Hints:
The protein is mostly beta strands. The protein contains one helix and eleven strands, in the order βββββββββββα.
Amino acid sequence: MEKVYVDKNNRARVTCPKCGFEKIVDAMNFRSTKNMVKCKCNENFQFTLEYRKHYRKDVRLPGEYIVKGSGEKGDVIIRDLSLTGIRFESLNPHEISTNDILEVKFKLDNSERSEIRKLAKVVWVRDRIVATHYSEAKLFEKDLGFYLRT
Length: 150
């Protein structure tokens, strides 16, 4: 099933898998998880809407965090990352809370083994899973940006 990104005007471009015809749809008309559309070639196909502004890549990268203020440290597995944030799983129980600021460090699995260090604000915590948004205003980082495109 194709994942389709919704733009700032609530529109999404869907492409027929049979004939390649592209159609722009109003995302407000499609709020379910499995949306169906009929192409002009009579092919029915499903798609899912993605409202994120930036692509999120599923990964499995070892890393570590330090909670600013308390100094708590821990090892993590980065589960997904984007240009604006990461989601990780702590390997041990932790005391991380929503709105905490973390310094997160990990290496990409690219040929350069690029090290990424980011300050990140915790958005939500569910047991050992933690989601964050980067605190820095710098949206584009060369190594991370290139990695996310590959």
